[in-house]
Each structure stands twice: as C-alpha cells, then as structure tokens.
UniProtKB/TrEMBL annotation:
<feature type="domain" description="Glutamyl/glutaminyl-tRNA synthetase class Ib catalytic">
    <location>
        <begin position="4"/>
        <end position="282"/>
    </location>
</feature>
<dbReference type="GO" id="GO:0005524">
    <property type="term" value="F:ATP binding"/>
</dbReference>
<dbReference type="InterPro" id="IPR014729">
    <property type="entry name" value="Rossmann-like_a/b/a_fold"/>
</dbReference>
<keyword id="KW-0067">ATP-binding</keyword>
<keyword id="KW-0030">Aminoacyl-tRNA synthetase</keyword>
<dbReference type="InterPro" id="IPR020058">
    <property type="entry name" value="Glu/Gln-tRNA-synth_Ib_cat-dom"/>
</dbReference>
<protein>
    <submittedName>
        <fullName>Glutamyl-Q tRNA(Asp) synthetase</fullName>
    </submittedName>
</protein>
<dbReference type="GO" id="GO:0004818">
    <property type="term" value="F:glutamate-tRNA ligase activity"/>
</dbReference>
<keyword id="KW-0479">Metal-binding</keyword>
<keyword id="KW-0436">Ligase</keyword>
<dbReference type="GO" id="GO:0006424">
    <property type="term" value="P:glutamyl-tRNA aminoacylation"/>
</dbReference>
<dbReference type="InterPro" id="IPR049940">
    <property type="entry name" value="GluQ/Sye"/>
</dbReference>
<dbReference type="Pfam" id="PF00749">
    <property type="entry name" value="tRNA-synt_1c"/>
</dbReference>
<dbReference type="InterPro" id="IPR000924">
    <property type="entry name" value="Glu/Gln-tRNA-synth"/>
</dbReference>
<dbReference type="GO" id="GO:0005829">
    <property type="term" value="C:cytosol"/>
</dbReference>
<dbReference type="InterPro" id="IPR001412">
    <property type="entry name" value="aa-tRNA-synth_I_CS"/>
</dbReference>
<keyword id="KW-0547">Nucleotide-binding</keyword>
Length: 290
C-alpha cells in the first residue's frame, strides 16, 4: 500500500505556525517513506470558507517548499456523496433526527437527576439522548432534508472492541495499539452530530469518507483530534472503510502556553514571510529538522 499522508486545512482564516508544523510533518513523513503528500480543502462550512483563504493556503504551502499530488480534493465538491452516505445510514437506522438546540441540550444534560453538571466530550456537551428513538427502524420513513442527524451509538457501534494504531503519542502519552469499546464511546463522546442542519454534513463524516477516498494510509494531525479519532474509527467500521494509522502531534503554543488559533494573526505564516523569515526559520521554530 502506498504511504500517503495529507494536510486538511479549512479555508476560514490564515494558516499559522501550528498549521505549518502539521503540514511539514506530514510532508516529511511521506518523503521519508517515498510516499505521497496530499492536500484537502475542508470547506463544508460555506458560510465561513473564503476563496481568498484557500488561495492563501496554496501560497503559504508553496512558500514552505511543499508540493502535493493533484487534483486537490475540495469537500464542497462532495456534498452529494456525503448526502448519499447519510441516506444509507438513515435507511440502516443508525442515525436519527435531532430537534434540540444548544439550550435544550444544556438543560437536559444538566438536569438534577443527571447529577447537575453536564459531561463534556470532544464535541462539547455529551448529548443526553433527548431525541434518540427507542426503535432503530428508519427504513420506511423518508430521509429528512435539512435536518440535524445524530449517530445512534446505542445501535451503531455494534462491535464491542474498536482500535487504531497510534504511531506517535496522544495528549496523555497514549501510544501503540489504542483500544476502546463501544461503551467507552457512548460514555465519553455520545451521539455525535453527523449532519448539521445548516451544512448537511459534519467534520466527522466528511473526514472519514475523504481519508478513505484519498487512500490516506497515515493521518497526521494535532493532539486536539485524538478523541475524535475514536469516533472516526467507529464510523469507518460502520461504513466498511479501512482504518488508517494515526500520528497525533504536539500543538504549537504561544509564549503564554495557549494553543494558536486562526485569529492569532500575529503568528500567521504570511506575516512571518512579510517580516523576512525563511521556511527554514519556520522549521526551526516548530522544532522540525531543516
Ligand atoms: N480541517 C481540520 C482543521 O482545520 C483538520 C482535520 C483533520 O486533520 O482531520 O483542524
């Protein structure tokens, strides 16, 4: 199998040092194995994605000295595929329509009988299951358009043991074979949204389908997505897709130890470039070999 990594930014703001680190690391790993480095534009949220930011991504990555296999995959071109997959999951009865808004979820999750404080998962408050149906048979009901759909983990994660291989380390030093159960997922993550009402898909669904379509063998990304990987593994199993090897890396932080965000324009790559820094300086600053 071809060793293939990818960098998958959202064109919603300038790339910063943290993005540079992730992209360079994925690129270096592919180069070291004689493999391929791919690029994917994660622009499902069309209300936030901008073509100017997409162009800036290409410019910044080229400046860093990266090249990638073309064509670049854009998620906004694949909305039909996401919809087809959701329709299939709906027929199989493993997703359900959710009518809750944030306030409803907070209120239900903080109900006194639940212990007061809502439990947090990687996607925010763990969904308390208000809209989860008692039966999983949706095959006769028409697929709901423009609806929020949640993964029904009570019926979907049927295999009790799930696992992936971590080549580097998770945020708490997790490495090697990472094993977890469907029950762990229910407790720590809950019924995640697979289709947002406004965009008809979600990060989780799109990323899993696209990593498989692009034949990604090694997913390189930040520690912040380590828990999300468990959802992705469950989805891969549900959709009959292969599970890549994962390499979660450290997050680049500012001087105060805070993780960099898109709004930290001061750390934008374009700013460093305008200030006369070189790509080797960027490698240096992020701890990568020159
Ligand atoms: N688009 C995601 C981001 O900007 C990256 C997702 C991933 O690497 O899986 O954080």
């Amino acid at each position: 199998m071809t060793f293939r990594t990818r960098f998958a930014p959202s064109p919603t703001g300038p790339l910063h040092l943290g993005h540079a680190y992730s992209a360079l690391l994925a690129y270096d790993l592919a180069q070291a194995q004689g493999g391929e480095f791919l690029l994917r534009i994660e622009d499902i949220d069309q209300s936030r994605a901008r073509l100017e930011w997409e162009q800036q991504i290409y410019d910044d990555l080229e400046w860093l000295g990266l090249s990638w296999t073309t064509p670049v995959l854009k998620q906004s071109d694949r909305l039909n595929l996401y919809q087809e997959t959701l329709t299939d999951l709906w027929r199989r009865g493993v997703v359900y329509q959710c009518h809750c808004n944030r306030k409803d979820i907070l209120a239900a999750a903080s109900a006194p009988q639940e212990g007061g404080e809502p439990t947090m998962g990687p996607d925010g408050i763990i969904y308390p299951g208000t809209c989860r149906p008692n039966t999983s048979l949706n095959d006769t009901m028409p697929f709901p358009e423009n609806a929020a759909l949640r993964l029904n983990l009570s019926v979907a994660a049927t295999s009790s043991r799930l696992s992936f291989t971590e080549l580097s380390e998770g945020p708490n030093g997790e490495t090697g074979l990472i094993e977890f159960s469907a029950d762990d997922l229910r407790r720590s993550i809950g019924d995640v949204v697979l289709a947002r009402r406004d965009i008809g898909t979600s990060y989780h669904l799109s990323v899993v389908l696209d990593d498989a379509s692009q034949g990604i063998s090694h997913v390189v990304r930040g520690h912040d997505l380590f828990e999300a990987t468990k959802i992705h593994v469950a989805l891969q199993q549900l959709l009959g897709l292969p599970t890549p090897v994962y390499h979660h890396h450290k997050l680049i932080r500012d001087d105060a130890g805070k993780r960099l965000a898109k709004r930290d324009d001061a750390r934008a790559l374009s700013k460093y470039r305008a200030d006369g820094y070189t790509p080797d300086d960027i490698r240096h600053m992020t701890g990568l070999p020159v």
